[in-house]
From TrEMBL:
Residue segments, region Disordered: 30-101
Entry protein name: Uncharacterized protein
InterPro entries recorded: Toprim_C_rpt (IPR025589)
A Pfam family matched in the record: Toprim_C_rpt
Residue spans of biased composition, Low complexity class: 46-85
Length: 101
């Protein structure tokens, strides 16, 4: 049920015929007071915690690792560019049956 702004779900124990105007107003007020639902499926905070745990180990090798990562990044972009190249089309084969008899 809705008032045009807030949507409220009718509880399982109640049917639509049993709900009067006062009960509908109460359900809508309860829903407004509850606030919006929390978003589901966000895993970013867990990944951020994992990255912060690995960060101290990387800082000791940061100076030595930077040149190698630059080369690796250049190699990856070259590989990606080659992979995105359009595929060559196969030339159609000529068959003996098409030579008009």
């Amino acid at each position: 049920m809705t008032d045009g702004v807030t949507n409220a779900t009718i509880p399982r124990g109640e049917s639509i015929e049993e709900i009067d105007f006062e009960r509908a107003v109460q359900l809508l007020a309860d829903k407004r007071a509850k606030g919006p639902a929390a978003p589901k499926g966000k895993k970013a905070p867990a990944k951020a915690a994992a990255k912060t745990a690995k960060a101290p180990a990387k800082t000791t090798k940061a100076a030595a690792a930077k040149p190698a990562t630059a080369k690796a990044a250049a190699a990856k972009t070259a590989t990606k560019a080659a992979a995105k190249a359009p595929a060559k089309r196969a030339t159609p084969r000529k068959t003996g049956a098409a030579s008009g008899s």
